[in-house]
């Protein structure tokens, strides 16, 4: 390699995320490496259990955490009230896919379906339960509340996902009963259909997830298609604002998500009136 | 610019955080741009208010959220119990420094004290209250609970910080009474000394922050100096695990913090037994 190309390569590496370290390191460092991110998981699970416990026993008419097509909570029935439940996303909600994140960082490659499929099958013993998750599910089960898993992992790998959850101390999870996978119920990756199905069987008192779609499809999606990000923030804060920390519980995931598809630039994130520049001498 | 240099420059830009966007964009996009991050703030503030409300009225012997030098909660006294309070960090806890983050992204420069000092003085009307923060402080005040601000903003800019908090709808904040700044009480940037002082005046029922030092100096610091990151995670989860979501409330900040000083590489974050590589054909 000639000298200019070598300098060029080093400049490219050093220009990224500090000194040659793979570019996703800051989100990975915070999410998987900081005490603070683990503390947020623990606090969120503590809040979820307290919130569910305060609303037991469920009864006919208890508002569930699942919204109907009109955007209002589906009420529990005399029958479903006998089966209180909480519905959980899996990836970066209950478990950290540490092994897959390591693969992405090491290969400096973005997410791809083929390697992710391999991880679903091979990583059953390497997924790491997030702080507070195991204790929360244990506490819920002791209260007679059933954890139900609603994930976009693939149905073809159902047995591997069941095994992964068991290995992480979060099981049992039984596909079609307490585990719902991509395409179940309505053939889509949106979770509203599966939630409606679950709410027909259980009185769902809480939802937990790391992305908007774990709560309702209506934050990301509007009548005209995918909503602009500013609109998603607005709707989450206003139309659905009363749910956060009441019956909807969010785990922090700056590693990936619908918010990064496509990636925002700073002018989409920072409104004109919020912008500031430093005009002094350095 | 010759062709090789131009290709080189484009390669450098494209190698960073996707297509020419400044390298901090992914943490900035999630923190300031995603609905999910705002929802976490809202849920955390809801949980904080509920938790404080459930422990009122304070009384002599009520355990405070502030730890004594032995690591156990300082008890409230008959006198301090008449002044219940909650103590809040400010930056990326109650407010997002959107303008400064924009400056950093635009200049592709790291944090520096000079431009930050200018922001403290010039940005009083551009700081953005985080979702749920204003409602939480209002709810606390209505319950007779005083918000006290404990921040490492500079004492020289006290009047600007008071004005910023007022403009964001979070005030009042009075330096020396309800606002404590870097160096107050014991001349340090560590917050334990200021917390002890505040706990001598108020019955502190909750702490809120985005970094370990907003709760106790003992997570980041041990007898031998700064703890390794793995030790910080361990201590936060075990020794202090019962506090998260009970009387300590963490806001997510993957933009900056002690966890990134120095930046971790993936081998520090991912233990050997957690690593996985994809061995298939792409």
Structure description:
Two copies of one chain form a homodimer. Chain A is α/β, with parallel strands linked by helices and 282 residues long. Chain A has a single domain (3-274), classed as Rossmann fold. The first copy, chain A, has ten helices and eleven strands. The first copy, chain A, has a five-stranded parallel β-sheet, with helices on both faces. The first copy, chain A, has a two-stranded antiparallel ribbon with strand order 1-2. In chain A, a hairpin with a 5-residue loop joins strand 1 (63-67) and strand 2 (73-75). In chain A, helix 2 (25-33) crosses helix 3 and helix 3 runs parallel beside helix 6 (133-142). The longest helix of chain A has 20 residues, at 35-54. The radius of gyration of chain A is 21 Å and the shape is globular. The two termini of chain A are 37 Å apart. The interface between A and B is large, with 97 and 98 residues.
The mean pLDDT of chain A is: 91
Helix/strand order of chain A, N-terminal first? HHHEEEEHHEHEHEHEEEHEH
The amount of helix of chain A comes to 25-40%
How much β-strand is present in the residues of chain A? Answer: 5-15%
- Characterize the overall form of chain A: globular
Distance between the termini of chain A: 37 Å
Q: How many strands appear in the DSSP assignment of chain A?
A: 11
What's the architecture of chain A, going by CATH? Answer: 3-Layer(aba) Sandwich
Radius of gyration of chain A: 21 Å
Unreliable runs of chain A: 4-24
* Helix/sheet category of chain A: alpha/beta
CATH superfamily of chain A: HAD superfamily/HAD-like
Chain pair forming the biggest interface: A-B, 97 and 98 residues
- Strand order in space, largest sheet of chain A: 7-6-3-8-11
Oligomer state equals homodimer
Q: Which fold name fills CATH's third level, the topology of chain A?
A: Rossmann fold
When the domains of chain A are counted, the total is 1
User: Helical element count of chain A?
Assistant: 10
Main sheet characteristics of chain A: 5 strands, parallel
